[in-house]
Amino acid sequence: MPSENLDVQARVNQVTVEDVRISAAGGDLSLLGQVVSLDIFENIFSPFLTGNMILSDGVGMMKNFPITGREIVTIRYKTPLDTGDVKEAKLQIVSQISRTRTDNRNDVVQLRLLSPFGFSDLNQTVSKSYSGTHSEIVSGIVNDYYGTSVDADATQGDSKYAFTFRKPSEQIQRLASTSFAISKDNKSSGYVFYETASGFKFKNLQKLFDTSPNEDFYYVDAKVNRANFEMDEFTFQNHIMRDIVLPRAFNRPTQLTSGGFGGIQYTVDPTQKSWNAKQISYLDSPAAELDTKHPIVAGSSRLNNTAAKIYLLNRQSKNIDNSENTLSDLAETNAYSQMNYNTHNDTTINFTVSGDSRLEAGKTVSITLQKNEPDLSITESEFDDEKSGLYLIKSLHHKFYFPNDQKIELKTALQCVRNFR
Fold this sequence. Notes:
Radius of gyration: 25 Å
Largest sheet: 13 strands, mixed
Strand content: 35-45%
Structural class: alpha+beta
Helix content: 10-25%
Mean pLDDT: 85
Shape: globular
Number of strands: 21
């Protein structure tokens, strides 16, 4: 296909795709000319990349290169102004969703894609002991069972576990819910394990919210007058939000019954023959402690002393050799991690932007929304101060379009969240 200058924005939704190739034991071939669209999905609560692909086969490709559900699809792509390396995503074909014969004797084939690591995970179980911090253990599991590395935030506390017959991703998810960052206390517990185009991540959820965004990751929901509109029109188009939806949010019944606002934790210590009860309150959460944000629940609310969720915890303050057990902070993380997980999306915004190969799930963006008020009623800023601000990309959908004129397009749909009003 004709090459494009990656340093110049020449059109909206511009992307350069070096190639889309399908490979199997029998060889490989380019799908450019057959692929109609390709979707890649990332989510901080999903351990693996997923996707879809639509092919238009009018040359007998499916006969000469049979697709049986073990082929690897590789796409190499880059958008203008991305100064990094060309991005590469590998996805395995795992099923055929549909195959339709058209009037002009083309077969339109829709295929489901999954990360090769995700497919490998389906066929593996962990039966092994690991010791060290949780981030060290996760790095060991990823290396042993996926043969790669993970970008992991450091965690507090050394532990030793004997894992028995669970998938590697399931073991990691169990560790994620009882982990907290080395620079935080256990009120900031709760990690997420996920895969992006750049690899695996094991990240503290609260630290993700506090990450500063790339200076180019700002998005607005309206055009404004530009001093040099002719020169920067296409570049500015990268920052225009389209198809804006504010979906269901602040699901208070679910948050309440799932521990989003706390609960009561009962602790039994057989080594000391004692037990106690502790109130877990939303006021202890990181979001409630920051004055610059708007807490979900006011300090005077009865929800801060809820008994809707009961936690039962076995705590061992002494080891078998009568030495002090130093893992009590790790043991008490569950209530706080459930609080942080259940309030992570109290405010949600979905929108679509011109494709950007630098965007990933787990990064932050700056969003500016206009007020939905008549012009005459606006006495100060025209922007919505309540909904505008810093958001975390919870999920991302890269949508590649391959038209006949070879001007490939990329649109990126984002679901952005924050853990306060």
